[in-house]
Structures are given as C-alpha cells and as structure tokens.
Amino acid sequence: MSELDPTIAEKLKRTADGLVAAIAQQRGTGEVLMMAWMDDEALHRTLTTRRATYFSRSRGTYWVKGETSGHTQHVHEVRLDCDGDTLLLVVDQQGAACHTGDRTCFDADVLLPVES
Amino acid sequence: MSELDPTIAEKLKRTADGLVAAIAQQRGTGEVLMMAWMDDEALHRTLTTRRATYFSRSRGTYWVKGETSGHTQHVHEVRLDCDGDTLLLVVDQQGAACHTGDRTCFDADVLLPVES
C-alpha cells in the first residue's frame, strides 16, 4: 500500500500492472528526455523528494534516476494529463538522460526526418 | 498485416496489445502536447502521410488527430527511443491538442507545483 495522497491516487488511471506513464522534460529547453513508468509509490517518492523515481517493469523494482550513474533528475513540476494515465515531469537533468550516454533517449534513431 | 517498413517494424518493442507509446511535442516551443498509442499500421500511416494517426485502445480503431475537430497535427519528425517502445513526434498542432479545449493535455492538473 502506497502513502500516495489519496486525492491524487483517485485520479490515476493505471494499466493492468498498476502503472502510469511518466515523460521527463528538461526545464527551460523543453527537450523530451525519456519515458518511463511509475506506480503509486514511485509517484509518492517523486513528489515528496523531488528526485525522479520510477518503477522498472523488467526488474520489478524502484529506481531513483541517476542513483548509480549520477545522472539525476531534480523535479521542478509534475502534471497529470486529462485522462489520468500520463505524467509530465519538468526536471533538471544532470548529464545524460539515456543509459547509452546520449542526452535524451530519442537522439539516436530518426524514423522520419524533417522535410527538406 | 501492416505495410510498415520491415526495417522499422523489427525495431519496435510493443506492449502485449501490440502498441508503442507516442508523445506529441510542438515544434519550436517544445510543449509536450499529449501522449497516445500507435500500432504498426498507425505508425505506417503517420510516416507516409505526415498526419498524426493513433490507435484508440478503448474503441479499437484508428483516429487521425483532428479529423473531426480540425485540430490536426502535421508531423515534422518522428524519433524512436533507445529501447524501441516510445515514439517522439515533433508536430505542428492546429488549435487545441486536448479534447477539453486546452492547448495541451497537461494544462489542467498540477500535482506538484514549481518550488517557490
């Protein structure tokens, strides 16, 4: 059972696994850095510590972003979307957001380039 | 069976329902507008028409963004993230992205305000 504020918990529309999507965006530049998942407890920890904390679906554990790499995310603002299934985190990203070392997880693979 | 380019299709890491997440971001301003879902065919249509086309999980149908409202998204660029399960669409949003009439789906509900 999470300690997440019940007035927030009742707004969430979770997946069958109990998760909501979380998009991290760099404050100021607006770069979309990454997308990951949170359950109620991950959101609770993020809101109360302002350190972005996600839930790993593959490992089934919580991870504080940057805890091992140092590439932390200080959370300035958290918003919930209109249907309650996606969070937007406005953060200050230290270093690379992507585990590959890229600044964002969307840097490497362009499927459709800008029109020339 | 979708006509999606097989070299793209083989990169996608889909949910059990065959979907990848798609984040729409306004070109220039960097606003995060909304998050929705695509299957292979929705992505194929988006890439070939440059009109953002999503898959509705609740209705089980494709929807061209703005087809009824006029609030279309012209797609400038599509990027795939490092683990193949999330797309970033850089778009020109006509009018409101949110069905509520708000500019973005994240305008209405601030869970954690900016530090004062």
Automatic annotation (TrEMBL), chains A, B:
<keyword id="KW-0368">Histidine biosynthesis</keyword>
<keyword id="KW-0378">Hydrolase</keyword>
<dbReference type="GO" id="GO:0004635">
    <property type="term" value="F:phosphoribosyl-AMP cyclohydrolase activity"/>
</dbReference>
<keyword id="KW-0862">Zinc</keyword>
<keyword id="KW-0479">Metal-binding</keyword>
<dbReference type="GO" id="GO:0008270">
    <property type="term" value="F:zinc ion binding"/>
</dbReference>
<comment type="subunit">
    <text>Homodimer.</text>
</comment>
<keyword id="KW-0963">Cytoplasm</keyword>
<dbReference type="GO" id="GO:0005737">
    <property type="term" value="C:cytoplasm"/>
</dbReference>
<dbReference type="InterPro" id="IPR026660">
    <property type="entry name" value="PRA-CH"/>
</dbReference>
<dbReference type="Pfam" id="PF01502">
    <property type="entry name" value="PRA-CH"/>
</dbReference>
<feature type="binding site">
    <location>
        <position position="98"/>
    </location>
    <ligand>
        <name>Zn(2+)</name>
    </ligand>
</feature>
<dbReference type="GO" id="GO:0000105">
    <property type="term" value="P:L-histidine biosynthetic process"/>
</dbReference>
<feature type="binding site">
    <location>
        <position position="85"/>
    </location>
    <ligand>
        <name>Mg(2+)</name>
    </ligand>
</feature>
<dbReference type="InterPro" id="IPR002496">
    <property type="entry name" value="PRib_AMP_CycHydrolase_dom"/>
</dbReference>
<keyword id="KW-0460">Magnesium</keyword>
<dbReference type="GO" id="GO:0004636">
    <property type="term" value="F:phosphoribosyl-ATP diphosphatase activity"/>
</dbReference>
<protein>
    <recommendedName>
        <fullName>Phosphoribosyl-AMP cyclohydrolase</fullName>
        <ecNumber>3.5.4.19</ecNumber>
    </recommendedName>
</protein>
<feature type="binding site">
    <location>
        <position position="82"/>
    </location>
    <ligand>
        <name>Zn(2+)</name>
    </ligand>
</feature>
<dbReference type="GO" id="GO:0000287">
    <property type="term" value="F:magnesium ion binding"/>
</dbReference>
<comment type="pathway">
    <text>Amino-acid biosynthesis; L-histidine biosynthesis; L-histidine from 5-phospho-alpha-D-ribose 1-diphosphate: step 3/9.</text>
</comment>
<keyword id="KW-0028">Amino-acid biosynthesis</keyword>
<feature type="binding site">
    <location>
        <position position="83"/>
    </location>
    <ligand>
        <name>Mg(2+)</name>
    </ligand>
</feature>
<comment type="pathway">
    <text>Amino-acid biosynthesis; L-histidine biosynthesis; L-histidine from 5-phospho-alpha-D-ribose 1-diphosphate: step 2/9.</text>
</comment>
<feature type="binding site">
    <location>
        <position position="105"/>
    </location>
    <ligand>
        <name>Zn(2+)</name>
    </ligand>
</feature>
<comment type="function">
    <text>Catalyzes the hydrolysis of the adenine ring of phosphoribosyl-AMP.</text>
</comment>
<feature type="domain" description="Phosphoribosyl-AMP cyclohydrolase">
    <location>
        <begin position="34"/>
        <end position="106"/>
    </location>
</feature>
<dbReference type="InterPro" id="IPR038019">
    <property type="entry name" value="PRib_AMP_CycHydrolase_sf"/>
</dbReference>
<comment type="similarity">
    <text>Belongs to the PRA-CH family.</text>
</comment>
<comment type="similarity">
    <text>In the C-terminal section; belongs to the PRA-PH family.</text>
</comment>
<feature type="binding site">
    <location>
        <position position="81"/>
    </location>
    <ligand>
        <name>Mg(2+)</name>
    </ligand>
</feature>
